[in-house]
Predict the structure.
Amino acid sequence: AQTVTQSQPEMSVQEAETVTLSCTYDTSESDYYLFWYKQPPSRQMILVIRQEAYKQQNATENRFSVNFQKAAKSFSLKISDSQLGDAAMYFCAYRSALRGGSQGNLIFGKGTKLSVKP
Amino acid sequence: GAGVSQTPSNKVTEKGKYVELRCDPISGHTALYWYRQSLGQGPEFLIYFQGTGAADDSGLPNDRFFAVRPEGSVSTLKIQRTERGDSAVYLCASSRDFQETQYFGPGTRLLVL
């Protein structure tokens, strides 16, 4: 079974600085997707960034980028120029690319609470 | 367009009661997922619908939990004989198809007293 581990329960960053959130995962599959979701106090899970495992190029979305190391099964999120609105829980998630059965669902880590100091 | 909506936003019930939680997916999304998020945890998968049928219900914790999606759009998660351990946020997500990105609703916070 696949697992996702986020080893940092809490992180803090100064406004305008850069922070990196860690995520490792375990799988025997070769094709899959990885995601970072943000969950503010409103509870709504918001997609931050998505990475396809077959793509070697790291995904980037504005101030958010990932460092995807497939061999090491590592998928970290870098937030540049941190803003107060970035404060939230961040969840790393895995999904199989295989069709059918239980492969459609997301498998989440326990999350990292990010605080942004003004 | 409108996102995923869930009602009610909050639900307080007594142990042993029956509850229904509703999810309205994004229009045209054929895949619909239910997750449960306990305090301090990441969401955990409950059930996945492709159209009207439950393609995978392996995450439902026991037979007190049941979900339907009769017309392939709105889904209802039903919990019988609620227990205090059922207290959690229940999240719904939808996607255009199986391999597309899942978009989440704001969740229903269920509290069983």
Observations:
- Chain A touches chain B through 26 residues (CB under 8 Å).
- The first strand of chain A starts at residue 3 and ends at 5.
